[in-house]
Task: structure prediction
Amino acid sequence: MANGKEKPIYAKVNKPVFWISIIACIVFYVPMMIFQEAAQVPVQKAMHFITYSTDWFFELIILACLVFVIWLAAGRYGNVKLGGPDDKPEFSTFTWVAMMFCGGSGAGLVYWALIEPIWYLKAPPFGLEAFSPAAAQFSLAYGIFHWGFSAWATFAVPAVAFAYLYYVRKKPYLYPSYACRGVIGKAADGWVGKLIDAIVIVGMVGGMATSLGFVIPMLSKISADYFGIADNIQFKLIVCVLFSCIYTWSCYNGLKGGIAKLSDMNMYLTFIILGFVVIVGPTTFMFSLFADNMGALFDNFLRMSLYTDPISKSGFPQDWTVFYWAWWLAWAVYVGLFAARISKGRTIRSLIVNMVCTATGGCMLFYLVFGSYQVDAIMNHGAQIADILANEGGPAVISWFLNSLPFAKVVIPFFIFVMAISQATGVDAASFTMANMACSEVKDGVEPPKWIRLTWAGVLFVATVALLLVGGMQVVQLSSVLTAVPVLFLMVILAVSTVKWLREDFGYDKALTTTKFDNENLESIPVKVDGTSNTTNM
Result:
């Protein structure tokens, strides 16, 4: 071409999956939002029933995910390269980790790093006394636990399954039902497969809407306080529209043109904020409290992983851990698919280690800095942040935090900008992933059409606006929990499918080999890691 640029190639939309997903979102969310007031009592009862009757199942499955990915990374399958012998990573390691981390966390991590420690001081686990030194030992530990190893292991299970299917087996089908073929067989091509895809997409909308339902009010409250205006619904909608402009631009520009650039920018700016708070905050106390909480975390990890409290019935594990696990399950396929799509040329071990360890390390930083700052203010300086949280809500607490920092007039607009970029990256990744899932084939180097990416970005925007208009988060939280229940079984299927494929491809020889697939004849040709043929005569 005259300008030297190749014309982009877009995947073909799978119309049945696309329309079933759209209709499912409408049928699932709209009635609940319209009749929200009448639905409050049944919603509360449903949340209580699900979280209390399935708490043990959620906890066992999430713990099993962590054990599974550790086994996979530590074993011989960890050396399997996600791609051919000559395939190289598409992104630098920094950009790769940044995209993965931002896609799986977003501004919600900042929100909860500032809020969760207060709750754990006020209503601690294990029957500990409120605002006691013992409660402070878990104030960061539980937040890191909920955003740490187990959460990212939940994302890593589908990430490995999709990456292996896509880059090793060369199957250009980026939707959950196809990845289940190792277990459910040809049922993946029928109504069962379409139902799986629809459930996952609806869950993704619920999971992302839940996150946006926290982040938009946070940005709105901080901005309103900064400008000295009322934080009413009209202002929230203005913030929502401005925010949507950021992620719509990134989503339109695609994986390399938008999401990668936003992720890099977000990481650099986030490091600036974290570094600033460390310097101006109680630095020594931060690291001391963090070390103490990490000791409590590792010492009680299994206890926290299987804590259901059936005798005292405090509700702590159900309200926090079970809901978090359900929220992550609603996100799991989306984060897994996105991580798989950007992991060409990596090994299974590097994918798992970076998701479970590096991303967890990033989450730890936020609790180390923001969480410790809040605990110091309460325990050492008598700040009444818990009262602000109870009377005015989480956004008011974050506004208090920012105004307590030096140079607040400069810090606050910088913070708002970084949080908008951070959350926009997550929304972009979700829209991009849902667009992939709604396409028949997404071959290597091919992206879903721009219009379908923008459609899903629009669905998320409309869902967020609706939530702001009707108020309250319990209905959407219920949607995350409900859609997470079938994903529990999906995780098991994906893990079994992955092991089945690995054993089919590598189980015939003790020496680890990789498998090259001839797309023309659909024949499997065993090839050693160095790329040479494993047969004497082909």
Notes: Strands lie at 12-13, 439-441, 513-518, 523-528. The radius of gyration is 23 Å. The chain has 21 helices and four strands.
